[in-house]
Amino acid sequence: MYRYDEFDATIVRERVEQFRGQVTRRLAGELTEDQFRPLRLKNGLYLQLHAYMLRIAVPYGVLNSKQMRKLAHIARRYDRGFGHFTTRQNIQFNWPQLGDVPDILQHLAEVEMHAIQTSGNCIRNVTADQFAGVAADEIEDPRIWAEIVRQWSTFHPEFSYLPRKFKIAVTGAPDDRAAVRVHDIGLRIVQNEAGETGFEVWVGGGLGRTPIIGVAIRKFLPKEHLLSYLEAILRTYNLLGRRDNIYKARIKILVQATGGEKFGQMVEEEWEKIKDGPLHLPQAEIDRIHRYFAPPAYEALPDVDPAFETAKLENPDFARWARVNLVKHKVPGYAIVNASLKPEGGAPGDASADQMDLLADLADKFSLGEVRVTHHQNIVFPNVRKRDLFALWQRLKSARLATSNLGFISDIIACPGLDYCNLANARSIPVAQRLSRHFSDPRKLDEIGDLRLNISGCINACGHHHVGHIGILGVDKQGQEFYQVTVGGSSKDDASLGKIVGAAFSEDDIVPAIDTIINTYLANRTDRSERFLDYVRRAGVDPFKEALYGPAPARRTAAE
Amino acid sequence: MAMASQMITANRLLDGAVVYFTAGKSWSPNFTDGAVWPDKESADAALIESKESVKARIVVEPYLFDVAVTEAGPKPTSARERIRADHKPTFEPDQGSWTGQISG
Amino acid sequence: MALLQHGALQPNNWRFVGDDAAIPAEGPVTVSLKRWQAESEVLRGRNAPIGVRLKNDEPALALGEDVHRLSLIEVEFPKFTDGRAFSQARILRDKLGYEGELRAVGTILRDQYLFMTRCGIDSVELPEGKAIDGYLAALKEFSAWYQPASDGRPTVMELRHPANANARRGAAPIVTASVAAHSA
Q: In the beta sheet, which residues pair with residue A84?
């Protein structure tokens, strides 16, 4: 993984001192809350429902064991013994005290971490495919480019006061695991006819209040021009993005208003003027960063490991976990392991300090010292020998980290919701907990198959409900929590936005409603090969409407 | 029908904790210590008074919220304020990975 | 209002003249882009320095070659969350090659001052008597920079790869008047 050189370390160290000064000024009364808010947000510090919340950047989701141990330490010493992994591959602490935050940042700087630009109207933490560098289907490792973008976007003097927040994602595989089509900028590494790799550039996607699938404004961008092209997009947006209405300030609104083609032309025009300037990426820098991501020294192993095969035969639970939570590694004899942070009845994405320490230990023992955070709020061990899988599974199982539910209905994405968040209208976590208990039977999960269920506690859509196969959106009705349901969303290559099934459900009715939706699917699918998403795309929303609210004429009468 | 009344809440500057404005013009983390203002006039006047604590750097952004006055005392009418008054998430500490210690 | 320039608080002898007000016979003045475009002949005929105050939503490129006839360009920060002027400043410096004084007016927070200087702004308007220690300290908060900007400071990447840097510096083309007109 990337390691800081003297320059990176200097910048992070100076940022800690700068923020320490800002906190001191706030506590001394030299800054009002209105002046301090944007400063603290640029460092990921929110004032939430019960306390401050600190969001720490995990650049493109990559953590080494030392960093994970540091997070555990912060959780114990400055928080309440746990943290929450987020859909931007970051981690949040829910109870830090304002005066402690500079010290927390100091701790983070010691392990090459920070909270820079994890909030605010600036370029946020860059995300990437959580299987980067190890996936069997990868064209090229996106982490190199995510790191280059991370450096360019850090304290960019021109783009630190944008109209609104700005999110960039990079994927290096044809199977888009980074949801690039629903980002402000999505970068797909592609190969042209000459066999060279470059970027397909997507702009203007996003979720939130106005969910939009982005448009590809460039089919192939030579890699050395990445930064000048990003700069051209950002400059166009910074000058022309709306600032009169916070809900219309994201780049997606500008792209829609301008038209994708016209917007692309404006970017190209700007880019032509700057592409050969100092932003042109020297091959030496690409090579330098590339070296940090060179493949580790893998052992030459047979792809079939007899001990692994035997363990599966002897232990059905392990066999099931291996079937559900492993992903094919590019190197024979190795596997990519997903450790689920979605135990039955758990808070999605939460991990205790003890669990973090264990994850760090297991990373050292079994995965060359590295883990990844996924935007599905799980943890990945990227490099595990197949012969170690059984031992790893046993250790994970002892800490409730081995739930076999990756990609199933109980692998729920959920935002913190009204239990923590100042913006939320309704709670997310308790709904996720009840759903995960309701759908806990492994046979039931297998029967339902591939199903992505996402929950957001408000329209800002941190829980990505629009792109869940089933999406749940918490809404407020006169101080009471209600839940609106959508079906048919996807964040993958076939990206689509879910459609609302009908009137929102009360807290008591939401789990039965999801159960009805699942039963409707199971009763009407052609066979098991027709996934939930396929069924929705074939049959539309009507069968669900009918099952949930009664036949169409009755609905009409009821409405009259 | 319960009477529509209001209380004043804010977050403490130093630790962000939820606090309530009391009849004695101070702040308490206990919901039950909070003063209840029976009408808009007295509530608005109290809110102005409470903002002195913003200048004194004790709290951040005080605001009024509705409570229903019942025989058992005032109750927040919104889910949001019910959760804030408890100083913790609503889900059970023994579930999932939640291991936090709750203190007032 | 006073000026923070060259590390000290200075008196400001410039004044902005609104579109409906008469241009004074003497003294340096700034006018709106619109007035400059309509009356540039007359304004240039005055025996005093002339400048333009760009509004936030006006394209800096519209000034084109005119930048070389101006002694001052002002860009606005109507509230500190509005960062359009950062881009305007960079366009004036990097694309139009403006070398005169570039001033930020409006709400100027010390926490933005460093970014302003990086974007080529070399003076900022501050209230009379404003303590400037914090502003000066802010300029020293960082000593390394990832991005090339308009201040000529070497970037981290250039320091990492000095040979390449020499080849690229100064390669950014200067925009022509026809391009400026097109973009406006």
A: A92, A350
Contact A243 C84 (CB under 8 A): yes
CATH code of residue A542:
3.30.413.10
pLDDT in tens, A105-130: 999 999 999 999 999 999 999 999 99
C96 token code pair: 């139009």
Touching chains, A (3+ CB pairs < 8 A): B, C
**Residue B83: which of A49, A97, A347 has the nearest Cβ?**
A49
Q: What percent of chain B clears pLDDT 90, i.e. is strictly above it?
A: 83
Instruction: Kindly report the CATH class assigned to C2-183.
Output: alpha beta
CB A205 within 8 A of CB A212: yes
* Probe site for chain B from A22, A50, A101 (most B CB atoms < 10 A): A50
In this model, does residue A487 exceed pLDDT 80? yes
A247 & A311 share domain: no
Alpha helix locations (H) across A79-198?
A: 101-110, 143-153
At which residue do the structure tokens 């977050």 appear?
Answer: B11
Residue A38 with chain C: CB contacts under 8 Å:
80-81
pLDDT band, very low/low/confident/very high, at C169 (cuts 50, 70, 90): low
Kindly indicate the confidence band of residue A556, based on its pLDDT and cuts at 50, 70 and 90.
low
Range of the domain at B42: 3-86
Please tell me the distance from the alpha carbon of residue A69 to that of residue A184, in angstroms, as a whole number: 32
Torsion sign (Cα): C128, C134, C139, C145: negative
Give the closest of C83, C142, C169 to A155, CB-based. Answer: C142
- The tally of domains found in chain B comes to 1
The ipTM of this complex is 0.91
Do B and C touch (≥3 CB pairs < 8 Å)?
no
Whether C93 has a pLDDT exceeding 50, the answer reads yes
The percent of residues above 90 in pLDDT, for chain A, comes to 95
C71 and C100 in contact (C-beta within 8 Å)? yes
pLDDT band at residue A286 under the 50/70/90 scheme? very high
Q: Which residues in chain A have Cβ-Cβ distances shorter than 8 Å to C119?
A: 157-158
One domain, residues A390 and A421: no
Residues on chain A touching C143 (C-beta within 8 angstroms) = 10, 14
Does the CB of C145 have a partner CB in chain A at under 8 Å? Answer: yes
Q: How far is C30 from chain A (nearest CA, A)?
A: 22
CATH number at residue A102: 3.90.480.20
Average pLDDT, rounded, for chain A: 95
Residue B93 lies in a domain: no
H/E stretch holding A11 reads: helix A6-27
- Token representation of residue B4: 């529509």
**Residue A231 belongs to what domain range?**
134-291
**Which position has the token pair 């004429």?**
A553
Spatial neighbors of C142 by CB under 8 A, at least 6 apart, are A11, A14, A15, A18, A155, C114
